[in-house]
Design a protein that fits this description.
binds flavin-adenine dinucleotide; alpha/beta; Fumarate Reductase Iron-sulfur Protein, Chain B, domain 2; FAD/NAD(P)-binding domain; binds iron/sulfur cluster; 5-stranded parallel beta sheet
Length: 474
C-alpha cells in the first residue's frame, strides 16, 4: 500500500473547534470554527480516493468529493471552489448543515471505526476561503439567450434553479414574500447552525451572476401568477412545505402551546432586527419547556429555548435514540447544552386549566411482528401514564406542503397530501402537469433537506432549459 493510502493511520479525523457550552448559551453565533489551510489540507489527505466513491453516490447532489479533496490537499483553492460549484449551488451552506453522518460521511469507507473524512467541514472551508480570497464563479463563457424565467420562492430549491439557469444564459427573476432570500435557511434554521451573513453573501454572489430578486413580493397577492406566465418563458415553483403537523390530542390549543416554526421565525426576526409584530415573539426565559418531536426542528427549538434562558428543556420522542430522524451532530450538541431527552414516550394530552401545566405521556414499545413487513411498529403501553410538568410546550412534528389555491387554476395538480404532482416526462425533470410550470424542493417531495431541495431546483432548471430548447452546458 502506498504512503498516501496509509495517511489516515497517521492523521486522525480532527473536526474544527467547537465553542465551549458556556459561550454557546449566551450567543446565537455558529458553534463550529473553521480549518486553516494546513488543517484542511491535512484532513483532505485522509481520503483514500476509492475507485468507486460511495460518498459521491450518497451525496444527493453527487458532489465530486474526492476531486475537490485532492485539490485542497494540493492547496488549489480556486479550482476546488469551481469544481464544488459544478454540482452544488450552496456548498458552504450544505457543508454547515447537511446531516453528513447520514449522507456523504456515513458512506465514507473510513467511517468504519477510523473516522470518516470530514467532508462537510472541508466543503464549507472551500467556498468560505475562496470567497475571502476573491474567487467568483467563472461566467466568462455564458452567452445570454434572451430568455427569462420566473422563480417563485427564494429557498434552496429556487436558488438552485436560479443558479443553473443563470449559468446557461437564462435570466432568473426570483420572487419571495420575505424581505431576504434563503427561505428556511434564513427564517427557520437558527443562526447557531447557519449565520445569516452566509446567506446574504450568497445573495451578492447570485446577483453578480445575473440573478434578479423581487423580495417582499407574494405571488398570488402582490403579483398575479397569470402575469408571470404572460411575461416569462417558464415558471418554477419552490414554495416549500410550511403547514405544521398537529399532534391531534386534547389540549393542543391551550395558551403556552406553540407550533415550532412560528416560534423559531419570531426569534430569528428579532435577532435580525426585521420584526414587524413584537407580539409574535415567544419568550421562554425562566420557563420549564417541553419540546415534542425528534427531528432537526425539535433540536433547533431545544437549543433556541436554552439560549433564551429557559429554566429547563425536556425533549420527548416516541421511539429510541437510534431512530431519531434529526442529525446526530445536533442531537449531541443539544445534550451538551443541557437538554434532557425522554425516549420511547408518546404525548397523549396537554394538560392545564387556563394555560399549559404539563404533558401527559404513555411509554411506547417497538415490535416487529407478523404483518408488519419487517418494519418496527411503535405502540403505546397501557398503564404507563406520566406527567411532565411544563410552562410552555413546543410542537415539532414536522411539516407538509401547503399548496396555494391558484395552482388549480393553472392546471397544476397536487396529490392528496398536498405534494405537487410531476408529469413524468423523463427529459423534462420536475415538470408539473402544466408544461410551462416546473416545481421542486419540499413542495414536491415533502419536508426534507436543504441539499435535496437544491438538487431538485437544479434538475428542474435542466428541465426548463430543455423545454426552451436551450442546450445546458453546465
Ligand atoms: P423553503 O426553504 O421553505 O423556501 C420556500 C420559499 O418560498 C420561502 O422563502 C417562502 O417565503 C417562499 N414562498 C412561498 N409561497 C410564496 C408565494 N406565494 N410568493 C412568494 N414566495 C413564496 N435541512 C437540512 O438539510 N439541515 C438542517 O439542519 C435543517 N434544519 C431545519 C430546521 C428547521 C427549523 C426547519 C423548518 C427545516 C430544516 N431543514 C434542514 C429543512 C430545510 O430547511 C428544507 O428542507 C429546505 O429549506 C426546503 O427548501 P425549499 O426551497 O423547498 O423551501
Ligand atoms: Fe456531504 Fe451534503 Fe456536501 Fe453532499 S452536499 S458532500 S451530502 S455535506
Amino acid at each position: 500500500m502506498s504512503d498516501r493510502l496509509l495517511r489516515f493511520l497517521e492523521v486522525p479525523r480532527r473536526d474544527p473547534e467547537k465553542l465551549a457550552v458556556e459561550q454557546r448559551l449566551v450567543s446565537y453565533r455558529e458553534i463550529y470554527s473553521s480549518y486553516d489551510a494546513t488543517g484542511a489540507a491535512e484532513q483532505a489527505s485522509r481520503c483514500l480516493d476509492c475507485g468507486n466513491p460511495y460518498c459521491e453516490w450518497k451525496c444527493p447532489v453527487h458532489n465530486y468529493i474526492p476531486g475537490w479533496l485532492k485539490l485542497i490537499e494540493q492547496g488549489r483553492l480556486f479550482e476546488a471552489a469551481e469544481l464544488s460549484h459544478r454540482t452544488n449551488s450552496l456548498p458552504e451552506i450544505c457543508g454547515r448543515i447537511c446531516p453528513q453522518d447520514r449522507l456523504c460521511e456515513g458512506a465514507c469507507t473510513l467511517n468504519d471505526g477510523l473516522g470518516a473524512v470530514s467532508i462537510g467541514s472541508i466543503e464549507k472551508y472551500i467556498t468560505d476561503e475562496a470567497l475571502k480570497a476573491g474567487w467568483r464563479p467563472d461566467m466568462s463563457h455564458v452567452r445570454p439567450t434572451g430568455r427569462r424565467v420566473a422563480v417563485i420562492g427564494a429557498g434552496p430549491a429556487g436558488l438552485g434553479c436560479a443558479d443553473v439557469l443563470a449559468r446557461n444564459g437564462v435570466t432568473p427573476v426570483v420572487f419571495d414574500r420575505h424581505p431576504r432570500i434563503g427561505g428556511l435557511l434564513t427564517f427557520g434554521i437558527p443562526p447557531f447552525k447557519l449565520e445569516k451573513e452566509v446567506v446574504e453573501r450568497r445573495r451578492e454572489l447570485l446577483e453578480g451572476m445575473g440573478v434578479q430578486f423581487e423580495l417582499g413580493t407574494e405571488v398570488g397577492r402582490n403579483v398575479a401568477v397569470g402575469r408571470l406566465l404572460d411575461e416569462f418563458d417558464a415558471v418554477f415553483l419552490g414554495l416549500g412545505a410550511d403547514r405544521s403537523v398537529r399532534g391531534g390530542f386534547p389540549g393542543e390549543d391551550l395558551p403556552g402551546v406553540h407550533p415550532a416554526l412560528p416560534y423559531l421565525t419570531a426569534n430569528i426576526n428579532r435577532q435580525l432586527g426585521v420584526e414587524q409584530d413584537s407580539s409574535a415573539f415567544i419568550d421562554l426565559r425562566d420557563k420549564h419547556v417541553v419540546v415534542l418531536g425528534g427531528g432537526d426542528t425539535a433540536m433547533d427549538c431545544n437549543r433556541t429555548a436554552l439560549r433564551q434562558g429557559a429554566a429547563s428543556v425536556t425533549c420527548t420522542y416516541r421511539r429510541d435514540e437510534l431512530h431519531m430522524p434529526g442529525s446526530r451532530r445536533d442531537f449531541r450538541s443539544s445534550q451538551e447544552e443541557g437538554v434532557r431527552f425522554a425516549f420511547n414516550v408518546q404525548p397523549v394530552e396537554i394538560i392545564g386549566r387556563d394555560r399549559v401545566e404539563g404533558v401527559r405521556t404513555l411509554a411506547t414499545q417497538s415490535t416487529i411482528g407478523r404483518g408488519t413487513r419487517g418494519r418496527a411498529v411503535t405502540e403505546t403501553v397501557a398503564g404507563t401514564d406520566e406527567v411532565i410538568s411544563a410552562d410552555a410546550v413546543i410542537i415539532a412534528f414536522g411539516f407538509t406542503p401547503n399548496p396555494p389555491s391558484w395552482l388549480e387554476n393553472l392546471g397544476v395538480e397536487v396529490h392528496e397530501n398536498g405534494r405537487v404532482r410531476m408529469s413524468g416526462a423523463g427529459a423534462r425533470p420536475f415538470q408539473t402537469t402544466n408544461p410551462r410550470i416546473f416545481a421542486g424542493g419540499d413542495m414536491v417531495r415533502g419536508a426534507d433537506l436543504v441539499v435535496t431541495a437544491v438538487f431538485e431546483g437544479r434538475e428542474a432548471a435542466r428541465g426548463i432549459l430543455h423545454s426552451l430548447g436551450v442546450r445546458a452546458t453546465q
